[in-house]
UniProtKB/TrEMBL annotation, chain B:
It comes from the Bacteria. Residues 25-151 form the Alcohol dehydrogenase-like N-terminal domain. Coiled coil: none annotated. InterPro entries: ADH-like_C, ADH-like_N, ADH_Zn_CS, GroES-like_sf, NAD(P)-bd_dom_sf. This is Alcohol dehydrogenase, zinc-containing. It comes from Deinococcus gobiensis (strain DSM 21396 / JCM 16679 / CGMCC 1.7299 / I-0).
Length: 241, 392
């Protein structure tokens, strides 16, 4: 992970602080009530964190959910993964922009318009789509690729991917840094995160998908396994143990 | 087929469910001939391991005959007799290449769930052990899908009985790794084992195989202590003796050179620490009751090792870290790298050095699983290890 300059967590209004204080207490209470032990523990902990941070005046959910946002309202996301392949091969896979939707499931399409220009379309919350044109701003084969959206994009964004040799025979460290300005500022980012559309989660999934594609050649799965769910099974015997 | 299914907290049943099928070209389907109930299955039963879903097929200790292989499977064919490690490993990632099979980067499709709880990293998947570990269907069933079929399943080509090789899937390598992690100096080191359940039994015998000068086993269940004593270990019943005093006396005041905590998160015990653990666990403020771990740290000799094969799930409180620091202890823990030990341990069984079937106290058909989970959990009828025949 990298650190970014700029403040972590946007400032809250006094009204927001009161609201988040209440939310924090509510989450703590939910944490004591029911559900899986893990959920209870996490809810309880999240509740305490939210309530405590209401006192500091920072945007607590943004902080708790590790959404970093600087003074311009830009959200920064980064993650890294080590893949047991050499950098040139990984770079080549990434440089083939048109094939990226195979790695990143939220990407609908990337059209290569010219050597440097491309048009990106992504799935947005609630079944909508967002598109923009991007330009490659740095291209060092086997080492680094950087891009930025062109003026007029709905979601202003930029990013870079670094390919670094890992120590020993472990292959390549792939580091991805993304920056974007979500519509609606911090609240928009929090809402997006709640809907499961937050780029930090997507990025992690994408990197693991990339690693598995490159190391295994396929994605492991348990989907479609036999179970006693969805009326598939007929109970022959059951009982409280 | 018939399978043992998790129906909710403290509810399991035997249901008729669809037969498994090949989902990926690297899968195999195994017809299960023997399967066991493990102490860690009890953690699923009572809901202390999160992310179980109703209908999940339980069981991670199983063996049988290959009946079908995917088109990319090279080492196995229909008819092969195999034991299957309880953990899934891809065989190609960096941890797998270093022999750290349980830490496989790639075999857990639900890596994100584990990452959220465990510091941004996920270990490999496990059979029949909740969705946080991949949601793989387990082997307490007539058939099971075995992913990574060229990596996990280990062929048994001698005529050893199922009961002699079944425990290569988990409890024997788990006990062995716990002992190996101690770095025992043969002829010199004293090893104490907390918990005389199946893993504790194998840890004690493995410590002896690795040359421990003396082995001490601590539990409260007379049958378990009797089984441990049969191997020549000294035994301590902590309900009848002050365990820390007894261990000091047994070791000339030094304490055991290495201590194995083969109990894990549901330790029983007494005293204020144990009460506090139980209260906090009931309030869901902690996952783990750590009496055994606390005793392990407090009893261990200076410069010793605390080896932890027992499963821990989350956060613990009141850990005597000061004592551990003052004595310069080493902690070794984690899920078993089962694949790594199979050739050596099978050799020891074939060579007559150990017959793992000593640990079995109960044998039954799959339909008796719900009753036997209960018997095992309550340690009734001298129950130490249950083996089920899915076809009986
Ligand atoms: Zn087990
Ligand atoms: Zn692996």
């Amino acid at each position: 992970m990298t650190t970014h300059s700029g403040k972590a967590g946007a400032q809250m209004t006094p009204a927001e602080r009161v609201a988040y204080g209440i939310l924090g207490v509510g989450l703590s209470a939910m944490g004591l009530r029911g559900g899986h032990p893990a959920q209870r523990l996490l809810l309880g902990a999240a509740g305490v964190a939210v309530a405590a941070q209401a006192l500091t005046g920072r945007h607590p959910l943004a902080t708790a959910l590790k959404i970093e946002q600087n003074a311009d309202g830009e959200v920064k996301v980064s993650d890294a993964v080590t893949i047991g392949q050499d950098a040139d091969k990984l770079y080549a896979r990434w440089r083939d922009l048109a094939s990226l939707p195979g790695l990143m499931t939220h990407l609908e399409q990337v059209e290569v318009l010219s050597e440097k220009r491309s048009r990106w379309t992504v799935k947005a919350p609630a079944g909508t789509h967002v598109g923009w044109e991007a330009e490659i701003t740095a291209d060092e084969p086997g080492k680094r690729l950087a891009w930025a959206s062109l003026p007029g994009a709905t979601i202003e964004n930029s990013g870079e991917v670094l390919f670094r040799p890992a120590p020993g025979d472990r292959g390549t460290e792939v580091v991805v840094r993304l920056g974007y300005k979500p519509p609606g500022g911090a609240t928009g980012a929090v809402v997006a995160r709640m809907l499961g559309q937050e780029p930090g989660q997507q990025l992690r999934d994408d990197l693991m998908r990339f690693k598995r594609e490159q190391e295994l050649g396929y994605a492991p799965t348990a989907r479609g396994q036999s179970s006693g769910r969805a009326g598939a099974g007929t109970g022959t015997q059951e009982g409280r143990v | 087929m018939k399978a043992v299914v998790w129906q909710g907290t403290n509810r399991i049943g035997v249901e008729t469910v669809p037969d498994p099928s090949i989902l990926l070209p690297t899968d195999a389907i195994v017809r299960v001939t023997s399967t066991a109930i493990c102490g860690s299955d009890l953690h699923l039963l009572d809901g202390y391991i999160p992310s179980m879903e109703k209908g999940d097929i339980l069981g991670h200790e199983f063996m049988g005959e290959v009946v079908e292989v995917g088109r990319d499977v090279k080492k196995l064919k229909a008819g092969d007799r195999v034991v299957v490690p309880f953990n899934l490993a891809c065989g190609v990632c960096d941890p797998c290449r270093r022999g750290l099979f349980s830490a496989c980067d790639n075999s857990n499709p639900n890596h994100r769930m584990a990452e959220a709880m465990y510091g941004g990293v996920s270990g490999g998947g496990l059979f029949g052990y909740s969705h946080i570990y991949g949601g793989y269907a387990g082997g307490q069933a007539q058939y099971v899908r075995v992913p990574f079929a060229d990596v996990g399943p280990f062929k048994i080509e001698s005529d050893l009985r199922d009961e002699q090789v079944l425990f290569l899937t988990d409890i024997f390598p788990t006990g062995y790794q716990a002992a190996e992690n101690c770095g025992i100096v043969p002829g010199r080191d004293v090893v104490a084992v907390f918990g005389a359940g199946p893993v504790g039994q194998f840890a004690a015998r493995s410590a002896q195989m690795l040359g421990a000068a003396h082995v001490i086993v601590i539990d409260r269940v007379p049958e378990r202590l009797k089984m441990a004593a049969a191997s020549g270990a000294q035994t301590i019943n902590y309900e009848q003796e002050d365990v820390l005093v007894a261990l000091r006396e047994a070791t000339g005041g030094r304490g055991p050179d290495h201590v194995i905590d083969a109990v894990g998160l549901e330790a029983h015990g007494h005293g204020p620490g144990a009460l506090l653990d139980t209260a906090q666990q009931k309030l869901r403020l902690t996952f783990d009751r750590i009496t055994a771990l606390r005793w392990a740290i407090m009893s261990c000799a200076k410069g010793g090792t605390v080896s932890m094969p027992g499963v821990y799930g989350g956060l613990v409180n009141e850990l005597p870290l000061g004592a551990a620091f003052a004595k310069g202890l080493t902690f070794r823990m984690g899920q078993t790298h089962t694949h790594r030990y199979l050739p050596d341990l099978l050799g020891r069984i074939e060579g007559g050095e150990i017959d793992p079937s000593f640990v079995i106290t109960h044998r039954a058909g799959l339909s008796e699983a719900p009753d036997l989970y209960k018997t095992f959990r309550d340690k009734k009828h001298g129950c130490i290890k249950v083996v089920l025949n899915p076809w009986a």
